[in-house]
TrEMBL record:
It comes from Segatella salivae DSM 15606. GO terms for molecular function: D-ribulose-phosphate 3-epimerase activity; metal ion binding. It is an enzyme of class 5 (isomerase). Its EC number is 5.1.3.1. The keyword Metal-binding applies. The active site is at D35 (proton acceptor), D175 (proton donor). GO terms for biological process: pentose catabolic process; pentose-phosphate shunt. Catalyzes the reversible epimerization of D-ribulose 5-phosphate to D-xylulose 5-phosphate. Binds 1 divalent metal cation per subunit. InterPro entries: Aldolase_TIM (IPR013785), Ribul_P_3_epim (IPR026019), Ribul_P_3_epim-like (IPR000056), RibuloseP-bd_barrel (IPR011060). This is Ribulose-phosphate 3-epimerase. HAMAP family: RPE (MF_02227). Its cofactor is Co(2+); Mn(2+); a divalent metal cation; Zn(2+). Pfam families: Ribul_P_3_epim (PF00834).
């Protein structure tokens, strides 16, 4: 399978959001990654539904929404309403993860579970066959442009093993510090989907940057 690329809008120029989304539409990007933060689950606030809704109207790529918020289960219907393809919720924010995953599916979306850097992959043993994607954070969530945490490579390998052993169909996505040096190693370790914020949006040629990420195998 070719590597999927999900550029993170957090690093875009918010005064020219429409141009940035047109760029994504015309690029080889597979999805658009949208980071919602609440100032509780993570020490930062990004954007919420008014922006998601506006973006959904112009973006032609499937929306990969990453909720860094407490009680994400309260926003399942609203997320489905904007036509999101994937709803990612944090393992650490969901007391009843199995129920939340079922509710996301019932709302017609794919369900992703996200792990903070300190949460081990084995916590997913009993849910891995129910999810469509596992999003491994390779930085502590909350900010773009941070340094990649090296341990993520081993984590990807362990997750790949767990997926193979259990016959799960889950994709592996990695988010944080994905750039020229880390991306090839991540793909080699077993990553299916690369999220990339600053490396794509701050690049002098974002089209070529996305294309280069897509070529990795
Ligand atoms: C961080 C967000 C990421 C962020 C990645 O909390 O989840 O999606 O935009 O940014 P880069 O690629 O710059 O590390
Ligand atoms: Zn993200």
């Amino acid at each position: 399978m070719k590597t999927l690329v999900s550029p993170s809008l957090l690093a875009a120029d918010f005064l020219h959001l429409k141009d940035e989304i047109e760029m994504i539409n015309n690029s080889e990007a597979d999805w658009l990654h949208l980071d919602v933060m609440d100032g509780f689950f993570v020490p930062n606030i990004s954007f919420g539904f008014p922006i998601l809704e506006a973006v959904s109207k112009v973006c032609k790529k499937p929306l990969d929404v990453h909720f860094m918020i407490v009680h994400p289960e309260q926003y399942i219907e609203q997320t489905a309403k904007i036509g999101a393809m994937m709803m990612n919720v944090h393992y650490e924010a969901c007391t009843h993860l199995h129920r939340t995953i079922q509710q996301i599916h019932a709302a017609g979306m794919k369900a992703g579970v996200t792990l903070n850097p300190s949460t081990p992959v084995f916590m997913l043993e009993d849910i891995i066959r129910d999810v469509d994607m596992v999003l491994l954070m390779s930085v502590n969530p909350g900010f773009g442009g941070q340094k990649f945490i090296e341990n993520t490579i081993r984590k990807v390998e362990r997750l790949r093993r767990l997926i193979n052993e259990t016959g799960s169909h889950a994709l592996i996505e990695v988010d944080g510090g994905v750039q020229a040096e880390t991306a090839p190693r991540l793909v080699k370790a077993g990553v299916d989907v690369l999220v990339s914020g600053s490396y794509v949006f701050k690049s002098t040629d974002p089209y070529a940057t996305i294309e280069a990420l897509k070529k990795l195998k």
